[in-house]
Structures are given as C-alpha cells and as structure tokens.
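Listing S7. Sequence submitted for prediction.
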Amino acid sequence: MQKRLVLDQQQIGIILRRFCHQLIENHDNFENTVLLGLQPRGSILLDQLAPVLEEISGIKVPFGYLDATFHRDDFRRRDFPLKANETKIDFLVEGKKVILVDDVLYKGRSVRAAMDAMIAFGRPQKVELMVLVDRKLTRDYPIMPDYFGIRVNTLDSQYVLVEWANQGQEQDAVWITEKVKS
C-alpha cells in the first residue's frame, strides 16, 4: 500500500499548540465553553489537545466524548451493524459554547449526526468545529471547520489515516493512502 506523509509528529504538535492559542483568543477565559470529542477518533485528538490547552491557558476546560452512531443517516443501510462507542458527558450543553473536535472532516455526515446527538444534552449557545484534517471539496453537507490543522485535496479512492503514538503507532502522523478494495 502506497502512503504519503501529510503531517509528522512535530507538525501535529505545532498544530495542537496553534489550536490552543486560537481557542484562547476566541473564548474569554473559557467561561461557558466545553469541548466534545466525536467518537471514536475525535476523542483521541481531544485527549491530545486538552492537556496542552490546560498547560498554555492555565484553565481546565470541561470536555467529554460524544457518540453519534445512532444518529447517522446510514445507520440502518449498512451490511453490518455499526458498533456504538461510549458517550461520556457529565455536563449539560444548554447555553454553552460547544467546540466539536474530530480528526478528519470528509463528507460532513458525522458532524451532522453529532449535532443531532448533542441536542440530547441541551441546546448550545454556539457550536464550532475543530478538525486536524479538512478534506476540502468532498462535502455532502455544507459544513466547514472553524479550526483546521491542514486542508488537503483527495480523491474518493483515497483515505486519510491518522496515527497516534498513544494508540500503539510508532509516532503521531497523518497519511494519505489508497482505500483498500474489497
């Protein structure tokens, strides 16, 4: 399988710090702000981001993990059942500024489903989207990130692979690969 490196560990570290500084600029002392990592991969990114944000800002911003499996528009259209992940939110989002965090923005379907799932925890004041990789020109829904690490042009035959050292990979990295044909 041919892989092309898009981001290495050092570049990802720089992006995470940039994200933190952007959040600090846009959210006054994080009053009324929460972070939600979209399960499963956005929660991994959030786990990387949260300690850096606390280190830079000195503020522990409330965060949780949101699973949108049962809100997906393709939930009942698959040949195999989707496996749900844990939703772990110990606060209401009612009236809060919510930042949804995911690793890759592709078609926009996961984000749309996440917004539906999030409503079960209240109506937010504002919702923003943060992604490590924005696969531009591929949307099915008119969804754009407020914060992105890198924008890439990809073909439908390609896949964006995000690897994390704390998930057993050699190092943090983002690759573009060809999709495995079945």
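Caption to Listing S7: primary sequence and predicted structure tokens for the chain studied. The beta strands are 3-7, 33-38, 63-66, 97-105, 126-135, 147-152, 158-163, 173-178. The longest strand covers residues 126-135.
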